[in-house]
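Customer escalation, tier 2.

The customer says the design service returned an amino acid string that "doesn't look like it belongs to this structure." They asked us to rerun it and document both sides in this ticket. The original structure tokens are below, unchanged.
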């Protein structure tokens, strides 16, 4: 074993000791403090090792691979969200949200990947040190989770393993491989996108926590396989002239589809897509259809089909009568397939909008899962 390897192993084991103490006893590395620790470790590391710069092949092409992969993931994920449902996120664009949640995550990811990259660079081809690096960063990612996890029962241990441990192991193995192949910048970009999107996007898919765990376990592996495939394909440094053109197309088309999905299903914009969960409007609108609602309509007439909120539900029915009391209008509604008028009156504040059109059967998976 090289002399430098021994110092590196001691350095890693000392860090593991600090993280184990934090995980099981004190939890002093929450918030910004874990980033401060990593920054101090980088400074200490620099005193004993000179940071090396390594030229990586196809750096900008790798960035294209990242964005195409991420866009492909989001289009599939949001299509899946149509089935399992979409949820609006909390607004994190506040002073508290930025400084308490977003900024600490950004600093941690950047500093963590710089430290990972330099450790792997010094490890060279040592498999033992590479494995220790993976273990070290698994502990970094889990140190606060372990402290708060209640592992006193088999079920709690299973939840921690399924929801936290396995995805973190998967991501750190993948990130360590990619870091050695491409450097830390691609990993920083990829991880920032994958970690921060729930805080930055207005709506996100709403699957169960176990489905999210499976996704977070698989995605880093698929990303690493894509990077491996890229390097295996272009070993000779020759990239066809139409490669970048294809990448632009691969980036542009998923982006357009994602924008349309978010536009229709968020409810923040003019048009809003709603899946129909009953047959009360048959035969014109069937169960499983998706109706497109124009939310900017302010004038409603008899025979208009409208979407409105009643208690906790969104209902799509036809206006059959309008009663004006002073300056306020009240609407009596009825489903086309129903015998009787609805036993409630709809005021203007409850109306989401007027139905503009429909797409047949697209919403049936959402309706089917909602009935389970």
């Amino acid at each position: 074993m090289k002399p430098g390897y021994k110092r590196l192993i001691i350095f890693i084991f000392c860090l593991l000791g600090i993280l184990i103490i934090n995980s099981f006893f004190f939890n002093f590395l929450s918030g910004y403090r874990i980033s401060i620790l990593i920054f101090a470790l980088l400074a200490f590391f620099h005193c004993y090792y000179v940071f090396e710069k390594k030229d990586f092949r196809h750096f900008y092409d790798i960035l294209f691979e990242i964005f195409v992969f991420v866009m492909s993931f989001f289009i599939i994920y949001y299509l899946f969200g149509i089935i399992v449902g979409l949820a609006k996120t909390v607004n994190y664009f506040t002073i508290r949200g930025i400084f308490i949640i977003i900024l600490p995550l950004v600093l941690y990811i950047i500093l963590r990947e710089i430290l990972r990259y330099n450790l792997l660079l010094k490890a060279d081809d040592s498999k033992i040190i590479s494995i220790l690096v993976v273990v070290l960063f698994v502990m970094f990612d889990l140190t606060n989770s372990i402290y708060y996890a209640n592992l006193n029962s088999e079920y709690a241990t299973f939840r921690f393993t399924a929801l936290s441990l396995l995805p973190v192991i998967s991501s750190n193995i993948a990130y360590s491989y990619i870091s050695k192949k491409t450097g830390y910048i691609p990993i920083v970009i990829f991880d920032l996108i994958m970690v921060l999107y729930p805080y930055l996007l207005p709506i996100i898919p709403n699957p169960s926590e176990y489905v999210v765990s499976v996704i977070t376990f698989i995605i880093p592996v698929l990303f690493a396989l894509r990077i491996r495939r890229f390097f295996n394909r272009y070993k000779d440094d020759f990239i066809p002239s139409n490669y970048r053109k294809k990448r632009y197309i691969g980036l542009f088309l998923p982006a357009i589809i994602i924008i349309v999905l978010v536009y229709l299903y968020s409810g923040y914009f003019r048009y809003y897509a709603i899946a129909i969960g009953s047959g009360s409007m048959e035969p014109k609108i069937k169960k499983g259809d998706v109706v497109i609602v124009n939310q900017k309509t302010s004038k409603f007439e008899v025979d208009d089909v409208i979407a409105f909120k009643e208690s906790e539900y969104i209902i799509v029915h036809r206006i059959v009568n309008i009663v004006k009391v002073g300056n306020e209008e009240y609407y009596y509604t009825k489903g086309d397939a129903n015998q009787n008028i609805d036993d409630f009156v709809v005021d203007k504040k409850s109306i989401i909008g007027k139905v503009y059109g429909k797409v047949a059967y697209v919403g049936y998976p959402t309706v089917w899962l909602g009935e389970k």
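Tier 2 assessment: The sequence is consistent with the input. The chain has two domains: 3-266, 272-370. The first strand starts at residue 86 and ends at 88. Sent an explanation to the customer and offered a walkthrough call.
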